[in-house]
Write a structure and sequence with these properties.
Length: about 450
């Protein structure tokens, strides 16, 4: 009998297995894919960000002449770019597999299904086996959603899973859904020369984000050629042999392919949760947030399947640490979701941490906000990317509650604000530290100074 049996080899699952090594726990990890890695490594975070970097390299070369570098007009070899993406992903998969082996995690290929608490059936095409564990962690992840009128066929109407393995670049794409995934694909495709039409039912792109940050990102995506429609629904697709017509309002647009990016659903169907006392609502598993344990003692859930938590790989890592810590020590180690950053890897990037202004007001805080643009930031001007902003949300006469950044390297910059939010720093305390000049992070320092009422530039 194992100490822990994990169902799912994505970020939440493999992180649980790796972290359990710290406590000397015996672990079996059950994964239905031929390799570990899950959505993030195989069909999400890593391949998507590789394509975004490809687009960044392409645009950098295209802009080289403005810096006196004669590089010529860039030409993208899509096949080589795809091969490079696969090379990066495969290398990381090999590294992760080796690390799991070194940490003595037994990886079992097959579909894992609970058959009561502590008992997991591993189903393969022609055989099955039963593994038992004192504890079970469900980490089966999520899958792309679709909408009525847009059945996914993998050719003309696709999900992000399909788009990451396009064998040739489409010339015209409609993207339905302007959350993080939709905006990232819109950004990379427009940078590579594709005509992009982005549709969002809500009134702003990246719904739930700070409206000021979302407005800035929208402005910059539109400036680079993305046609954006918000507050609008689309009619059923009219699929032809070589194109798709997307109706909206009294208009329509004809494209080569439609990318449906309306969110992801938890993959909990058929994994046997009904054989336990775990509570499942619309596919999501309810847990005690202090321990990640379900209503069934000894059965835990982490990652995208957990009800009410962000579907982010790094949230899955944190939840894995929380669950394994409780399993090993009996001591709760709750995740501080308030301090988990969200990054949209567009060009420019958008990142947030803590409460947005609206959320803070809903929670009853008396709020003050401070913003600083990147226009005069020397490093941003040097690299030709001085459009953007930093916004702080603070409690009146109190700590920093949240922050948003739109601009180059926002996903890196947000982490110093993560600490400020997590440690409940006062603006005066954070502003006392000096940022190197010239750096992009100076924009944070300037915003902090302004939040104290004593701005510099």
């Amino acid at each position: 009998m194992y100490d822990v049996v994990i169902i799912g080899g994505g970020p939440g699952g493999y992180a649980s297995g790796l972290y359990a090594h710290n406590f000397g726990l015996s672990v079996a990890l059950v994964e239905k894919d031929p390799t570990v890695g899950g959505t993030c490594l195989l069909r999400g975070c890593i391949p998507a960000k590789h394509w975004l970097h490809t687009a960044d390299v392409f645009t950098t070369v295209g802009d080289a002449e403005s810096y006196g570098v004669q590089a010529g007009e860039p030409v993208l070899d899509w096949g080589k770019a795809l091969a490079k993406k696969n090379e990066v992903v495969n290398g990381l998969v090999r590294g992760l597999s080796g690390l799991l082996k070194a940490r003595r995690v037994d990886v079992l290929e097959g579909f894992g299904r609970l058959d009561g608490p502590g008992r997991v059936v591993v189903q393969r095409s022609e055989s099955s086996q039963v593994v038992e564990g004192r504890h079970v962690i469900v980490a089966t992840g999520s899958a792309p959603l679709s909408i009525p009128g847009y059945p996914l066929d993998g050719v003309r109407i696709i999900s992000s899973d399909h788009a990451l393995d396009w064998h040739r670049q489409p010339s015209r794409v409609a993207i339905i859904g302007a959350g993080a995934i939709g905006c990232e694909f819109a950004s990379l495709l427009t940078d590579l020369g594709t005509d992009v039409y982005l549709f969002e039912l809500m009134e702003q792109i990246v719904p739930g984000a700070d409206p000021d940050a979302a407005k800035e990102l929208r402005k910059q995506l539109a400036r680079r050629g993305v046609s954006i429609r918000t507050g609008i629904s689309v009619g059923a697709a009219e699929r032809g042999e070589t194109s798709v017509v997307v109706p909206f309002g009294d208009e329509s647009v004809e494209v080569d392919v439609v990318l449906v990016a309306v969110g992801r659903a938890p993959q909990t169907e058929g994994i046997g949760l009904e054989t336990t006392s775990a509570v499942v609502d619309r596919g999501y598993v309810e847990v005690d947030p202090a321990t990640m344990q379900t209503a069934e003692p000894g059965v835990f859930a982490v990652g995208d399947v957990v009800a009410g938590t962000p579907q982010l790989a790094h949230a899955g890592f944190a939840e894995a640490i929380s669950a394994v810590t409780f399993i090993a020590t009996g001591t709760p180690a709750p995740v501080d979701y308030r301090a988990i950053p969200l990054v949209v890897y567009t060009h420019p990037e958008m990142a947030e941490v803590g409460y947005t202004e609206g959320r803070a007001r809903e929670m009853g805080f008396e709020v003050e906000t401070t913003s600083h643009g990147l226009t005069g930031v020397g490093r941003a001007k040097i690299i030709g990317q001085n459009r953007g902003m930093v916004k702080l949300v603070t409690q009146k006469d109190g700590p920093i509650l949240g922050a948003s950044v739109v601009g180059p390297q926002a996903g890196e910059i947000i982490h110093e604000l993560m600490y400020a939010v997590g440690w409940e720093a006062l603006p005066d305390e954070a502003a006392a530290f000096i940022h190197a000049h010239p750096t992009l992070s100076e924009a944070v320092g300037e915003t902090l100074l302004s939040a104290t009422g004593r701005s510099l530039h």
